[in-house]
Amino acid sequence: MHLDHTHHGPSALSADAHRPDGTRRALRIGLGGPVGSGKTATVAALCRALRDELSLAVVTNDIYTREDAEFLLREAVLPPERITAVETGACPHTAIRDDISANLEAVEDLEDAVGPLDLILVESGGDNLTATFSKGLVDAQIFVIDVAGGDDIPRKGGPGVTTADLLVVNKTDLAPYVGSDLARMAADAKAQRAELPVVFQSLRGETGAADVAAWVRERLAAWTA
Ligand SMILES: Nc1nc2c(ncn2[C@@H]2O[C@H](COP(=O)(O)OP(=O)(O)O)[C@@H](O)[C@H]2O)c(=O)[nH]1
Ligand SMILES: [Mg+2]
Known about the structure:
With about 220 residues, this protein is α/β, with parallel strands linked by helices.
């Protein structure tokens, strides 16, 4: 699916919590963050952790390719009909923030095709530190950074780091090799985010994405309550 860069009026699809037939739609969680921080790897780990207990699907946003979706398909983290790719063209932030129609269509089509669904994960195309999701597209967002991107990223802030519902600091296994100070990153993140949660994780470690999966379960419990 290609993103049409011309702007349309308000989409017929909406952020309403119910589908046209009155059933509750899936909780939509966005994953944003810089290229290479571990968004796709986190999506894969979440699928493995949650697929036996939830009905879920994934939308990936790639700039020019379907590489993230193809990785998830190759890894068989979900049946193929539960993974959709949106090609965003040159501006990945537009597709998740300004003209969200292609992404809304993708999530609605997934619910029609394989629903009812409990959860849809939407991965943004790799972008910089400023990309955030429209609240019309997702109900909650996770911002993924990694320790190799520099331990000053939490201190520098930006909307993803400061306002995301969950901040994930990934690749903690690499901290000793790149000289990142995890305690400093934790203190800086706390200063930027006050009470908003932060998870430090290594997908190379034994617990993988367990903490993020637990956070998703909490959000889902609140959504369905
Ligand atoms: N060492 C290490 N590598 C990781 C971790 N998480 C992801 N990676 C690797 O980092 C690279 C980029 O990950 P990817 O999920 O594609 O990043 P994305 O661009 O944010 O989607 C891949 O080679 C992953 O295998 C981690 O926790 N530790
Ligand atoms: Mg990716």
